[in-house]
Amino acid sequence: MTEAWRPEDDEPRGASGPVRVRVPAKVNLHLGVGPLRRDGYHELNTVYHAISIYDELTARRGDTLTLTMEGEGTGELALDDSNLVLRAAHALAGYAGVMPHARLHLRKQIPLAGGLAGGSADAAAALVACDALWGTGLSRDELAGIAADLGSDVPFLIHGGTALGTGRGEAVSPVLARPTSWHWVVAIADGGLSTPQAYRELDRLRETGAAGPPLGSTDGLLAALRQRDPRVLAATLGNDLQDAALAMRPSLAATLKAGEAAGALAGIVSGSGPTCVFLTADAADAERVAVELEAAGVCRQARIAHGPVPGARIT
Ligand code: ATP
């Protein structure tokens, strides 16, 4: 039996100092939910977009695997192997045949269970950070392969930018778009919503005929991304899970209405919610909409963000 390579056995391999990785949140510009598959997932047709709200993971050498956390929602997160950071570190170590030894520290700004894929982002950050710390030198595509087993959104958060997601969302291909920065307002709600529950609610609404018609193709959105006009993009944003999120959290209707009344070009629920995101014409409009949303008391906090931004990267 060969013994697993230990990072501390071979000093030149991997980083000796701390590795700091920044990872963005995602929104879905288009979230088309298809039928429920035999494996329990829904077939998705989505356009992911990475925005400038970040979590940060620092990895240092250690004799065991440990994780400490601070920031958004970390009081509610277990520090056991259900934590996606630890699951990602174990998955990479297993794949690369190394000991999973590291001291990890997570600083969260992405709200928990907010529909912004914060947990998936943290898993992506852990893969990139541990790969550098341990000197395992995997390609982004190899990391994305490990990521797919950790969660449907994790491969996208390795890559970032704007990308098409198919299958259960794990098959990601970049979208060719003009280099434009879009300006967003992100309205963060009190508390989270469960993603599996939102899908179940959508199934229920569809069974009873109470759901809106499915979004269908991403063609309109992809064409809009090739132009530079936020008004054109605004008209093509859509989310099949929005009816479900609104049924579970009716107060989101007031949030969406307030953002549009404040001058946003369009507002949608992000993923399974309860975060709502608003596209604005420019940075000044985004500032104004954020101030008005907070003043209207329809969200816990309104943050401005831009996108697309890169995925998990060493800073
Ligand atoms: P998505 O949009 O991918 O469905 P979300 O943004 O709604 O996700 P997350 O913040 O990713 O929600 O969290 C979903 C669940 O993942 C949490 O309720 C928590 O139980 C679990 N989880 C495990 N590890 C983490 C982590 N490091 N950060 C956040 N959530 C985690």
Protein traits:
ATP-binding; 315 residues; nucleotide-binding; transferase; IspE; 10 helices; alpha+beta; binds adenosine-5'-triphosphate; four-stranded antiparallel sheet; Ribsml_uS5_D2-typ_fold_subgr
Percentage beta strand = 25-35%
Summed over residues and divided by their number, the pLDDT gives a mean of: 94
Question: Helices and strands: which structural class?
Answer: alpha+beta
Kindly state the percentage of residues in helix. 25-40%
The largest pleated sheet is described as: 8 strands, mixed
Count of helical stretches = 10
Oligomeric composition of the shown chains: single chain
N- and C-termini, Cα separation: 38 Å
Q: What letter string, H or E per element, gives the SSE order?
A: EEEHEHHHEEEHHHEHHEEHEE
Shape: globular
Counting DSSP E segments of at least 2 residues, the number of strands comes to 12
Instruction: State the low-pLDDT regions, or none.
Output: none
Radius of gyration from the alpha-carbon trace, in angstroms = 20 Å
The small-molecule ligands in this entry are: adenosine-5'-triphosphate
EC number: 2.7.1.148
GO biological process, one term: terpenoid biosynthetic process
Binding site for ATP: 111-121
Pfam families: GHMP_kinases_C (PF08544), GHMP_kinases_N (PF00288)
Task: Describe the protein in words.
It holds the Pfam family GHMP_kinases_C. The active site is at residues 26, 153. Its EC number is 2.7.1.148. It comes from Micromonospora sonchi. This is 4-diphosphocytidyl-2-C-methyl-D-erythritol kinase. Strand 5 and strand 6 form a beta hairpin. The longest helix has 17 residues, at 118-134. The mean pLDDT is 94. This protein is an alpha+beta fold. The protein is built from 10 helices and 12 strands. The strands form 2 sheets. Strands 1, 2, 3, 4, 5, 6, 8 and 12 form an 8-stranded mixed beta sheet that branches. It has a 4-stranded antiparallel beta sheet with strand order 9-10-7-11. The protein starts with 18 loop residues before the first strand and ends with a strand. Bound molecules: adenosine-5'-triphosphate. Adenosine-5'-triphosphate (ATP) is lined by residues 77, 82-85, 112-120, 122, 153, 195, 271-272.
